[in-house]
Design brief:
With 360 residues, the protein is an alpha/beta fold. It has helices spanning 2-8, 10-25, 58-71, 88-99, 114-122, 136-147, 154-161, 170-178, 197-208, 225-231, 269-283, 289-308, 332-337, 343-355, and strands at residues 31-34, 42-48, 81-84, 104-109, 126-130, 150-151, 188-192, 214-220, 263-267, 312-318. It is globular, with a radius of gyration of 20 Å. The N and C termini lie far apart (67 Å).
Length: 360
């Protein structure tokens, strides 16, 4: 009995070893210092998650989800992995599925950027495209059943698959990299919510380690996360499909934990694009639109600290690279077709950087 029990775990043990070895080979992602006027007294840092092998912040989530499924016995040799995704998580999961030799199917909307679809296929995954974002959950679950596979369900398991106490999670990494800076404990950490897993991990880590850091979550217009936090009723919160890939949802996902969030900021979609473009002019960093959402919130918090004469630091994330959106958010014709005009918001950002005063 004991030998059989051990034999049943041989494949899973090797899969875990491969995932942990991949992590061990990876240097941590860079924490960029964004230049700001010295007299403001505020230091801004962007953690560049685009440098992961699968190209985004979701590399961390995918690694955690695979380990969680393996240690729970849900992923075994030959299991088909199925996920509902807006793109980046599926890219990262396709990477890890290939690493341990498993087939992968991503269920996504037809509006997902062609660049992300191509990346999933490059990593050996298959894409099942549906018409409406509300369909992805049921179609993914049904696909897993009919294929005899496992539905990864990032929207449920993201908040519990990552160890919020540390174990090289993103929050621990941020604080280690800040340790020799002038303000090693930031006043704010600013992130978006796609599943809610990143904000849950960071919020819990801050409380567990008793850091005097506030957590701000930015949310695209019409997403359900903001009203869920504002009204304290996640079950009743509804929204519309997000136009900013990777963040914002039509419902408050099970992994979203409002109680660990200190402040939320709603961000107009065109403002996300404006801030993404402004970042490239300011620093040369070419980021995706969810990074722009982060920054629209960041600049408001920087302005507040400047107006109060409060010195300190703020940290946010560069979630993925702008090369994933060449035919969409970086294309003037595409933006016009979606009714997105970033120009007025870019003017707000330019005035702010000239005066230090927020007029948005």
């Amino acid at each position: 009995m004991s030998n059989s029990c051990i034999q049943d775990r041989v494949w899973a043990s090797e899969a875990i070893r491969k995932i942990e070895a991949e992590n061990n080979r990876s240097a941590d992602t860079h924490l960029y210092a964004v230049p700001l006027p010295e007299h403001w007294g505020v230091h801004l840092y962007l953690k560049d998650e685009s440098t992961h092998r699968s190209g985004s912040l979701k590399h961390r989530l995918a690694r955690s989800l695979f380990l969680y499924g393996l240690v729970n016995g849900w992923i075994t040799e030959g299991t088909t992995i199925v996920e509902a995704s807006s793109g980046s998580t599926a890219v990262s999961e396709a990477y890890f599925a290939r690493l341990i030799g498993l087939p992968f199917i991503a269920v996504m909307t037809k509006t997902t950027s062609p660049e992300k679809i191509a990346l999933i296929e490059e990593f050996g995954g298959a894409c099942l495209l549906v018409d409406h974002p509300s369909e992805v959950y049921a179609v993914a679950e049904e696909t897993a059943k009919t294929s005899g596979g496992y539905y990864m369900d990032q929207f449920t398991f993201a908040e519990r698959a990552t160890d919020w106490r540390g174990n090289n999670n993103i929050a621990e990494s941020i604080f280690q990299q800040l340790s020799r800076e002038e303000h090693p404990v930031p006043a704010w950490i600013v992130v978006g919510a796609g599943t809610g897993g990143t904000s849950a991990t960071i919020g819990r880590y801050l409380r567990y380690n008793r850091h005097n850091t506030c957590l701000a979550v930015v949310d695209p217009e019409n997403s359900a996360f903001y009203p869920a936090w504002r009204d304290g009723d996640a079950a009743a919160a509804t929204g519309l499909p997000s136009r900013i890939e990777g963040i914002g949802r039509p419902r408050a996902e099970p992994s979203f934990v409002p109680a660990v969030i200190d402040h939320m900021i709603q961000v107009p979609d065109a403002a996300s694009v404006a801030a993404m473009r402004h970042l490239r002019r300011l620093t040369g960093l070419h980021a995706g639109p969810s990074t722009g959402t982060n920054l629209w919130g960041v600049w408001q918090l920087v302005a507040q600290m400047v107006s109060e004469g409060r010195k300190g630091s703020i940290v946010s994330l560069m979630c993925d690279g702008g090369d994933r959106y060449v035919g969409s958010y970086n294309d003037a014709g595409w933006l016009a077709s979606k009714g997105l005009d970033p120009a007025p918001y870019e003017a707000v950002l330019e005035r702010f950087h000239e005066t230090g005063v927020w007029t948005g």
